[in-house]
Amino acid sequence: MRILVTGGAGFLGSHLCEALIEQGHTVVCMDNLVTGRVENVADLLGNERFSFMKYNVCDYLHIEGPLDAILHFASPASPQDYLELPIATLKVGALGTHKALGLAKAKGARLLLASTSEVYGDPLVNPQPESYWGNVNPISPRGVYDEAKRFAEALTMAYHRYHGVDTRIVRIFNTFGPRMRPHDGRVVSNFIVQALQGKPLSVFGDGSQTRSFCYVDDLVRGILALLMIESDRSVEQRTDRKFLHAKQDDEASESIHNPVNIGNPRELTVLEIAKLVIELTRSSSQITYHPLPADDPKVRRPDIQRARTLLQWEPNVPLEDALLRTIEYFRKVLA
Ligand code: NAD
Ligand code: UDP
Question: Cys-Cys link to 20, which of 25, 86, 175, 325 (CB 3.0-4.6 A)?
Fold first, then answer.
């Protein structure tokens, strides 16, 4: 397949480009480098099946030749980034998603949208199934990201229903791993870098808020399974038991075009993750407490039943292993 990855020079996008090239596909990576880095795809630049375009996905998109799929991952993702870039974040979620969907329609390509657990806002149910509509404050500082992604989901479903574009939506829960920037601002990278540098770990609030952390390799496997799963008709043709369940699920929730949560359901408090990072880095760092950002979700944990049934996917990298791999990466980067 020939696949466009928007945001391909970012943390997740670069892992997706790498996995797609490994599987034999041809990849066009598009990124304006607002939060990404060319270094993330440096190893792919010499590959004849890989090309890089520095481009803003909000502008008119023109890609020469056929395109089979688009992975639309362009968007600031760390709260630190989207709070610094509120309008660019709203624009890429709205205008960028519109351009990507328009391109998918013109090329007859499948489009997979990177959505987020933030569409659930500060959730009133835990864990969060895809059927939960969320609890988002549209006018809070975080609203720029949450509402951009909610609009992007609405637009994606409209292009599917109105124009028949073959679309997928993944709701990604907190994911970490190599290639996050050391000062990206997200909790796992912050804590690891602070612990390795012997600085205090900055816990926001009292650290009782929870998150559920997924390793990047698990996430990439889930996303590619969702991208590659065939449309409803082929699902219906399958006769094994798991797919019969998937079919019933499809009928109940309008099929594979509806959002799918991908994340690791193991839920920890932020204070627990800080202590675990100190233990695994064997750091002598202390913990310091800072004010909790506005509307910081109190709990977050994916219900992954739909991914299990539809994709036969579940995470298999234990949190401790995933942290050790990421610690190794940051040790090298900081050295
Ligand atoms: P990231 O900041 O590393 O990557 C985002 C990439 O998009 C960057 O390379 C950036 O330069 C690029 N980009 C932003 N605006 C652009 C524009 N207008 N035109 C072209 N490129 C643009 O973040 P990430 O963690 O890799 O996130 C990737 C996607 O996954 C985002 O859409 C994000 O919302 C989503 N997501 C990530 C997580 C996570 O835990 N990492 C969780 C939920 C959703
Ligand atoms: N957090 C923290 N210290 C940090 C960075 C983040 O305590 O240095 C907290 C943050 O307030 C939130 C959780 O860790 O409760 C996860 O934050 P992150 O920015 O990684 O992602 P979010 O889930 O909020 O999008």
Answer: 25
